Amino acid sequence: MGGTDDAVDEDALYVLTAVLLTPAQFPSVLGDDFPAACAALNLEPCAEGYGLVLGQDSEGARWTVVVDDVSLVAVAIASWDCGMEYDLSPGERTMIAALPGWPLAVAVAAPGVPAPHDPAPEEGDRPPLAPPDPDGWGPAQRRLGADEIALQWAQWRQQIGDDEMIGASATPDTSDVSGTSEGDRKEEPKPEPKAGHAGVRRALKEAREYLESAPPTGRVRSSFAPNGARTLRADGPGWSMVARTDDIAFVLLDDEPCEVLPVGRGPELPGLLESLDKIAVRPA
């Protein structure tokens, strides 16, 4: 493998980016859990996981190279995230597979080689990996939407008021009614709480069931959040949930294209989130 300098090496892969494929960190676009993500790439779901290196060959073709040197890939990603240069060049012995295409959208390209394109298919090759259609909606887009909320939690949270949350209710202030005596004042009816959303109820029910019967590895993941809280990510058939253990939850559904459904804490959500955090997979 090579870097992205101007000299073209016919045998090199010019590395553009990399991602981890481990029980606690995997491209959710590939599946609801770690075994499903591995199956999408025809990989065995080994506990140590893999690194996915995305790059171009000397002809510009897109390739995803699977390596078993997870630590090396993790160091490269951490370095890039800090704005540091890092030459990611896994040894040939660490390479597990070379898959045509990229499972994720990559906005950059290697200099000095043709524009990114899928390699010419050969007999018996699998179809090239490709990111999901950004204009469509389905499980992959739903999971990508949940990824974005987890990444930009503060911005999403600021847009949501208490009266917009599923299950929330607002009690009007009847402490004073001008021109009406205490004896004449009639009790004003309080608004009924919003009816629960059937899809959200199903998602929360299935999330609770994870506490009784362990889900596939990676269905529930926990990561750092400010002020001692945790960011929880849970997925299931047709739904994704992102939550903070000290705050609310957001639910996305296959049946509700592009909709983000906020769930207020209420009496039950805090306990559910605390229990899910206890069974969640965490980054090493």
UniProtKB/TrEMBL annotation:
Domain of life: Bacteria
Record protein name field: Integral membrane protein
Biased segments, Polar residues type: 171-181
Bias (Basic and acidic residues): 182-195
Organism: Streptomyces lunaelactis
Residue segments, region Disordered: 113-141, 166-199, 211-236
